[in-house]
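debug: dumping io for the single-chain case to check the tokenizer round-trip. Nothing else runs in this session.
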Amino acid sequence: MAALQREFVDREKWLAPEDYALAFSLARVTPGTNIIAFCAATGAQILGMRGALAGVFSETLPSAALAVLMTQGYESWRTNPVVMGGVAATIAAVVGMMWSAVWGLVAPHWGGVQRSIRTLAITGGAFLALWKLGMSPLPIIGIAAFAGVLWREPAK
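debug: decoded output
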């Protein structure tokens, strides 16, 4: 997600940060695999229906082939400590990239004491609601939207 954000928003300027954030947020609440919904949404924003189809197929076909190969490889090599070290390092790298994507989405809403506190409270509250309370994303987003309406920046 971090790489896609850098590519689509920062480098190529195909999407505005708000459009990327909207596609990311909507993909999180769709049933099924979120990344497929994200690829369809961003592809549609860039090239319409052709882009949506290209986004879905370019994400699913290579992923499916890779999943089959990795499953067979994992079954063959799961007792090898070198391979398992590589798997652990890959997981750590993916987590770091996910944090980078999260920061890219949160950073525009950071700045000033009240704004930063609001962003931290809503982001942290959503994290805890999902992690500790096991809430589904839709109620969390609804509560966050309501909190954002009530706790907004003062008019200038």
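debug: round-trip ok. DSSP finds six helices and no strands in the chain.
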